[in-house]
Amino acid sequence: MSHTRHVGLPRWLFGPALLAGVFVVLPVASMTTRIAWSDFPSLVTSEAARSALLLSLRTSTASTLLCLLLGIPLATVLARSEARWLGVLRSLVLLPLVLPPVVGGIALLSTFGRQGLLGGHLETLGIKIAFTSIAVVLAQTFVSLPFLVVSLEGALRTAGERYDVVAASLGARPTTVLRRVTLPLVLPGLASGAVLAFARSLGEFGATITFAGSLEGTTRTLPLLIYNLRVTDADAAVAMSLVLVAVAVLVIGLVRPRGAL
Amino acid sequence: MKQGPMKKNRLRLSATAAALLLALPLAACGDDGDSGSGDNGNGGGTETLTVFAAASLTKTFEELEKQFEDAHEGVDVKLSFGGSSDLVAQITEGADADVFASADTANMDKLVAADLAEGEPAEFATNTLMIAVPPGNPAGITNLADLTEKDVNLVLCQPEVPCGSASLKVAEAAGLTFQPVSEEQSVTDVLAKVSSGEADAGLVYVTDVTAAGDTVEGIDFPEAADVVNHYPIVAVKGSEHADLAKEWLDLVLGDGQQVFKEAGFGAPGA
User: Fold this and answer.
1) Nearest CA in chain A to B91
2) CB under 8 Å to B11, separation ≥6 — which residues?
């Protein structure tokens, strides 16, 4: 509060700024008024709640790893390569950001579903995706990948290529440059991208319920459980929502995203 | 954070103003939702009757909406369909409903317990379960026991919604244990999984199979007769259109019965 600036901010800015803050914080804070705190421990430690939270953490971790595996190469290529068609690819990769999640679910169904483009072949190979936890991870990866790619690409562009060039001129091979120079330089951007992807995976609902279904312990993640509970046990739904908020705040607190997102 | 009373008041004022500002654009799009095809939406003497009904009543109630609006000049019926438990939750949260039609008695009892029912709920139809399979029946399902086969992807409604509790009762009556691959929130979600071929079979109502046309095939099974589902309807307490609500009930319990019969529903009291 006592922080002084040399350039004064226009005073009228504070009204809308406050409005924006209230708009985000008030609804979340309101949830705490809807809950009997004495029941809170028993509500969030029920069997269904525990298995949903564990499943959410497991699948979100898996999809974050998958995002790293797929996203690091993609972001590097997008940031460093000069090829023309990459502009198109960049726009396409961002699609899941703007697609309604349920559309993402339908898209995944038509690809990996039993009647889908690849699903039938995979099933003959003995790889079952429909209604398994794998489907959950695929759904989460689909919606979270753009977050990682965008943050990492931004970081790579900001970092520039000077050090890479120096390393290469000293005889380092491209792979060595990538491993020892390029990626270590953008580690903060990579970390924040991974955290964003994890948080987005944790909240994934629409694509999951459309593509993976809802079964306790297998595909019923925390958001799906909340969706079920909201009609049968509203108190438990609010309690689980607060757990999800707490986890999300914890995750966002780990790294404050800068730049692109 | 020490603040003088002046500052506090100003803060509170800003917060109120903020809330008002936020509400403004929302209020602008509040009361023009007209699902019917009639465009007398902003006529001077339009009265709106809001009916909350279980998803399985979609086709029949849309039919009755036409009849009702033809018989009542200047009345606009608004239908809201969803899972019965969902709808009860919305009404107890203060949603504006004049009439509630449930797909089972359990959810109607919830509304009565919340003291939101005007008078006694009346039964207007019954329904039984049926196995739904994708066109061509790829898994070769013939009876209820086939649903317990290991490699059959069975999708059910979750136990809390009417079709789900009915499915559990049917399994119990037949001495079977189902191992569904997914428990969905509503009949429509189960049908979506079946008609797309993701699931090999699902348990839904006879009327749902009828309404789904040729997107799914239905298979009768004898145990279905053990679990009959009763559909009650009631006017919601505190409705501003009590007279209209009563007339809607009269239609559903009287002349409208033919519509339910054609859709495959059983008669009330069956």
Assistant:
1) A231
2) B3
Main-chain dihedrals φ then ψ at residue B33, nearest 5 degrees: -75, 105
For residue B52, list its beta bridge partners: B80, B100
- Rounded CA separation B220/B214 (Å): 16
B239 touches chain A (CB under 8 A): no
Query: Measured between alpha carbons, how far is B158 from B208 in angstroms, rounded to an integer?
Result: 17
Beta carbons within 10 angstroms of residue A107's beta carbon: 18
Return the higher-pLDDT residue of B133 and A87: B133
Q: Which amino acid is at A184?
A: P
What's the half-sphere exposure (Cβ side, CA atoms, 13 Å) at A107?
A: 14
Predicted confidence at residue B56, as pLDDT, reads: 84
Which structure tokens are listed for B243?
């007279």
Which residues does chain A have within 8 Å of residue B189's beta carbon, measured at their own beta carbons?
Answer: 209
pLDDT value, residue A2: 53
Q: Which of A15, A22, A231 sits opposite B85 (nearest CB)?
A: A231
| Alpha-carbon gap: B70 to the closest alpha carbon of chain A (Å) | 35
* Residue B207 near residue B264, CB atoms below 8 Å: yes
Q: Are A213 and B155 an interchain contact pair (Cβ–Cβ within 8 Å)?
A: yes
- Percent of chain B exceeding pLDDT 70 equals 83
Q: pLDDT by residue (tens digit) across B44-81?
A: 468 999 999 998 898 899 999 999 999 999 999 999 99
A242-255 mean pLDDT? 85
Within 8 A by CB and 6+ apart from A176, the residues are A167
Residue A123 pLDDT > 70, yes or no?
yes
Read off the tokens for B72.
């009542």
Residues in B closer than 8 angstroms to A231, CB to CB, are 83, 85-86, 88-89, 160
With CB atoms and an 8 Å threshold, state whether B185 touches A232: no
Strand B117-127 relative to strand B229-236, pairing:
antiparallel
| Contact with chain B for residue A110, Cβ under 8 A | no
- A22–chain B Cβ distance below 8 A for any pair: yes
